[in-house]
Design goal:
Strand content: 25-35%
Distance between the termini: 100 Å
CATH class of the largest domain: Alpha Beta
Largest sheet: 5 strands, antiparallel
Strand order of the largest sheet: 1-4-5-2-3
Radius of gyration: 27 Å
CATH architecture of the largest domain: Roll
Order of helices and strands: HEEEHEE
CATH topology of the largest domain: Chitinase A, domain 3
Number of domains: 2
Length: about 160
Amino acid sequence: MSAASETDGRQFAKIEDMKLFGLAVLLAVSVSACGGSDSQTPTSPSANVPFSTVDLRVGTGAEANTGRVASVNYSGYNYSATAAENKGTRFDAGAFSFTVGAGVIPGFSQGVIGMRVGGVRRVIIPPSLGYGNNPPAGSGIPANGTLVFEIELLSVQ
């Protein structure tokens, strides 16, 4: 083999090595960009989402105030920035009665205050007014998760 063809062979090998290196880098960047996240899994913590309420239907009955017993139907969801109405995975639903201002997370009580019987309200509760870093075990609520509740006020005593 001549010196010229030996040099050409080394240059060809270097070019092939550079192509393989470039392909490996491209593959690594592509895989890391995927992130592996599931869009149904809430992000924890849900930063910069403040407490808010939206009346979906305004009631006409008695008003819920601190210290009164309220009966509600509710559905609870993990907050999702990409889901319709920010309602991600539902973690609970049902009916119960409670004394407004006691016995439930602060954001739930705060969300019911001022509602009238027959009303339906969507309440977004940040972690500071929800479960914070200590959600109930097995609840499906992430630590520091923002919550969305739809609450129907059935009665006030």
